Amino acid sequence: MQSDADHIDEFATWIENLMRDRGYDIDSPRGGGKTKLAEDAGVHRAAVTRLLQRQSMPDLETMRGLSRALGVPVRDALIHSGKLTEEDLPEVPALAPVEIVLSGEGTITAEQAAVALGIPAHLRAAFVQITEQLRLGGAQETSAQTPGGATAEAEAEVGDERARP
Fold first, then answer.
1. Percent of the chain at pLDDT above 90?
2. What share of the chain is helix, strand, coil (3-state, %, to 5)?
3. What is the pLDDT at residue 158?
């Protein structure tokens, strides 16, 4: 892996472009963009100046602040800085939005739930199997209940009590 010095120009250029895109005035002498970014990021203005002058790479806390202020993931900042690679920080797939209607309509399959929850492919079969066992076990318990909510066994005991003199 290359040193910070090997990556600073590329990283500073990336940050400058983000700053311009986000409306930070860094091109006019008294635009105040560096100071405003430093305030928004919660970092020292000197850290921003050193980066934009290609003197030093920001530390992790400064990168976090810059990322937050510029609206980019810290992952992207770390990769653009050359500190880590995409292999070091694999992107986590976004979870699919899932709407489950409690009335029973619009339910999803165990496979769909596994995908929505981000269960890795090599674990999905186990997830689906366990989920189905739980679902079927719950269905069996529900079918054993009477309309009043008591189990058939409990109803039988109450019936026995009523039959006694």
1. 45
2. 60, 0, 40
3. 45
CB 93 within 8 A of CB 118: yes
pLDDT digits (tens, 9 = 90+) for 82-108: 988 888 888 776 555 545 444 455 677
Find the helix or strand (DSSP H, E) in which 7 lies: helix 4-21
Neighbour-count burial of 33, counting CB atoms closer than 10 A to its CB (0-12 exposed, 13-18 middle, 19+ buried): buried
Closest of 77, 60, 85 to residue 10, by C-alpha: 77
pTM: 0.55
In angstroms, the CA 160 to CA 151 distance is 14
Q: What would the pLDDT profile of 27-50 be if each residue is shown by its tens digit?
A: 888 889 999 999 999 999 999 999
Give the CA distances from residue 43 to residues 46, 58, 84, 89, 134, in Å, rounded to whole numbers and listed in that order: 8, 10, 22, 24, 51
Positive or negative: CA dihedral 75, 81, 86, 87 = negative
Distance CA 160, CA 90 (A): 64
Q: Measured between alpha carbons, how far is 64 from 76 in angstroms, rounded to an integer?
A: 11
Which residue has 């189990």 as its token pair?
Answer: 151
